[in-house]
Amino acid sequence: MSKFCKIFRIIFVVHLLTDVSLTVRYDPNWKSLDSRPLPDWYDDAKLGIFIHWGVFSVPSFSSEWFWYDWKQRGLPGIIDFMQKNYPPDFTYPDFAPEFKAEFYSPIEWASLFKQAGAKYVVLTSKHHEGFTNWPSKYSFNWNANDTGPNRDLVGDLADAVRDYSLKFGLYHSMFEWFNPLYKSDAANGFKTQNFVKSKTMPELYEIVQKYKPEVVWSDGDGDAPAEYWTSQEFLAWLYNDSPVKDTVVVNDRWGKNISCHHGGFFTCADRYNPGKLQTHKWENAMTIDHYSWGYRRNAPLSNYLTIEELLKTFITTVSCGGNMLMNVGPTSYGRIVPIMEERLKQMGEWLGVNGEAIYGTRPWSHQNDTVSKDVWYTKKKSATGYTVYAILLQWPKAGTLTLGAPQTTTATVVSLLGYQGNFNWSKGPIGGIEIKFPLIGWNMMPCKWAWVLKLDGISN
């Protein structure tokens, strides 16, 4: 063997040993699938935007479960709404032609999400009603290209979001309330898989191959086991052979009793915010509207979270190791209403000052302080070890803040993000630190809500 061939062989072997994509393949079982490392981009991102949009945006009343609550549960409020406003023979599919999205501007949406400080976007490709927001081959005449908008809502947003250097993801409902094939499989105790083989799985493979989402957010697994859905086979393909195999992340809703146990990141429940550090990466999927994921025309201002409430949710989520997926519900005509637009821009305004304490951080040894309970922590690697960030939900009224968790050293330096100069401090009487806040004029405050102290030189 020539010297050149020997060198080439050594290089090739080293490449095989270091290139995970060439050596690691995942088997269709949870033990193997759960061993896949979560791509770093997701843990660094912290904030995503969720979008619930579909035919339910036309009635825009009650919630995105309008059809089910009307026909299956028979909620009196929805029945009364329909009797007062629509003819007796009106059906839910009759709403679809009114889902026109005539003011839908993907570029404007993507720009707004960028301004919000989000790093990824997850659009509803299909909710439980079965209407697909892309021209699916498996949803004849019940999709956005053949009915209503007459365009590919998914593809248009995917392009715009990526133009703004954001990650693009897709939510997909595995089941459909009133699909006859699903109802037949359910009646058979999920021993048959006609719905899965002709609808759910073909759609999932289709959207991954066509749109290359870097988040696949599954939902609607219902009472059916993962084996019925063939979830493990799909995830093995997604991790091994799909066009996003190296960067894609998935959630945990892949079958009965799978949530909070298996998957890339855990969601556990809607609006999940445990308030303490979790052992597995998780996501708080939540809504700006207290009560609905879809747009509601009759929602009063009091039903929307204030920016203070949003920031508290976000800060506690990140401190405890989670990401926050903040949901907006656009109108049927394709606009994000002003109150939601304002909240997104306020979030971006805050992150513009304090993003250093959020993006790329990891949980510290303490999540909230042992003395001042409205203070939450994050940490980040620095040239000298770690920087700790103390995020204050309330400005100290007496001009002094006592923190019990940080242990000081002679090298400790305290500063406020967005403000020039360091703060004076002293060691607390029983440990911790007492921080003296200078008098800062209202017009010199770095931000309006939730302030961040940067603590360098902390021993713990």
UniProtKB/TrEMBL annotation:
InterPro entries reported in the protein's UniProt record: FUC_metazoa-typ, Fucosidase_C, GH, Glyco_hydro_29, Glyco_hydro_29_N, Glyco_hydro_b
Please state every residue range assigned to the domain named Alpha-L-fucosidase C-terminal: 367-455
Q: The Glycoside hydrolase family 29 N-terminal domain covers which part of the protein?
A: 24-356
Q: Which superkingdom heads the taxonomic lineage of this protein's source?
A: Eukaryota
Q: Name one GO cellular component term.
A: lysosome
- Any one Gene Ontology molecular-function term assigned to this protein's record: alpha-L-fucosidase activity
Which UniProt keywords are given for this protein, alphabetically ordered? Glycoprotein, Glycosidase, Hydrolase, Signal
Which reaction equation describes what this protein catalyses? a neolactoside IV(2)-alpha-Fuc-nLc4Cer(d18:1(4E)) + H2O = a neolactoside nLc4Cer(d18:1(4E)) + L-fucose; a neolactoside IV(2)-alpha-Fuc-nLc4Cer(d18:0) + H2O = a neolactoside nLc4Cer(d18:0) + L-fucose
Look up the EC number in the record and give it.
3.2.1.51
Supply the enzyme class, top level.
hydrolase
Give the residue range of the signal peptide: 1-23
Question: GO:BP terms for this protein?
Answer: fucose metabolic process; glycoside catabolic process
Q: Which family does it belong to?
A: Belongs to the glycosyl hydrolase 29 family.
**What is this protein's function per UniProt?**
Alpha-L-fucosidase is responsible for hydrolyzing the alpha-1,6-linked fucose joined to the reducing-end N-acetylglucosamine of the carbohydrate moieties of glycoproteins.
| Quaternary structure note | Homotetramer.
What is this protein identified as? alpha-L-fucosidase
To which species is this protein native?
Magallana gigas (Pacific oyster)
